[in-house]
Amino acid sequence: MRIAVTGITGSFGSAFARRVLTMDGFGIDRFVGISRDELKQSEMAEQYKDAHTFKLFLGDVRDEMRMREAFHGIDVVVHAAALKRVDACAYNPREMMKTNVDGTANVVSAAAHEGVARVLVISSDKACEPLNIYGASKLMAEQIAVSMNASVYPRGTRVSALRYGNVIGSRGSVAHIWRAQHALGQPLSITHRDMTRFVLTLDQAVGYAMKAIQQMEGGEIFVPILPSAKLPDFAAAIVGGTPKFNVVGLRDGGEKFAEALLTVEEPSRTVKRNGFYVVTPSPMSWRPGGWKGDKVDPKLRYISDGSHGWATPQELRRLVKEAGL
After folding, report:
1. Strand pairing partners for 119?
2. Which one of 80, 81, 119, 277 is at 20 to 30 Å from 101 when CA atoms are compared?
């Protein structure tokens, strides 16, 4: 298999490269990474200097022609490049749309032009009933991933999306802030004591991406089945003991107290299989037949408020340990 990853120097891209280049989970004979950060690329090139199948391209997903060059001869594209900081994006909405929305369309178009068989777009729980410009841009990216199958599927390219929750220890994660505050003996900054989130590790995110690539038929949104965590419980798992908190209020750009991974409407066209809720497209003009999996209850609620199950303290500590924190 020949695979390309956009946003290779980001948290997900770096974890994906580590899995592929050190564990060889797919049997890769060509692995292309694309990003616009030349310093991080130079560091990554040194880290994997003995990996002869690995090739780095400087490029921006806003440039479709550059994506075509990078995708030449590729079988699978994982599109992880995105602007994702909620507070920063609130003040730079046009930049967010150029990268997250137009960039996704460019990636899919370039992949189809080069005959790529499968494209997986990495999304976020923020895309589900979005409250801010980041979530809206990720919703648009998902819709592009699904709807472009109508034109690219007949040409041999399947496009799907993977939507998941908060990644423990990813770049810019609150976990690093809490660790630094705890080391200085300071109270931990949290936005609100009642805030909840779905949680997973970077390695889990990569694993779900690999599973989705193997299963995708074109047009699905893969949603892994994850535990929920209360922010104070999550913080306690990271620093230990019973930490003190400084409640700082919601961030600029808009935050939810609880995140959803399925909208109110989606369960009516969702099946469950292999650790995923798989949201099937509507309409679906590009392929005949049904979808594998068990139909879910149309009234299913998949929200981090605990209605789908809490992560135990032991499970949270295990996840934190697996994340290397």
Report:
1. 77, 159
2. 277
pTM for the model: 0.93
Residue 197: half-sphere exposure toward Cβ, Cα within 13 Å: 24
- Residues 6 or more apart whose Cβ sits within 8 Å of residue 279: 220, 221, 222, 223, 262, 266, 269, 270
Residue pair 266/198 in contact (Cβ under 8 Å)? The answer is no
Domain range 2-231+255-322, CATH architecture: 3-Layer(aba) Sandwich (3.40)
> Dihedral (C-alpha) 174, 179, 183, 187: value to the nearest 10 degrees?
40
> Nearest 5°: phi and psi at 57?
-120, 130
d(CA 317, CA 309): 16
Q: Which of 258, 253, 265, 238 is nearest to 308 (CA)?
A: 258
Pairing of strands 76-79, 2-6: parallel
Q: What is the pLDDT of residues 59-111, one digit of tens each?
A: 999 999 999 999 999 999 999 999 988 878 788 999 999 999 999 999 999 99
Residues classed as catalytic:
126
Let me know: does 225 contact 150? Beta carbons within 8 Å.
Answer: no
Instruction: Please report where in the chains the tokens 């505050």 appear, as a residue.
Output: 181
| Position 118, amino acid | R
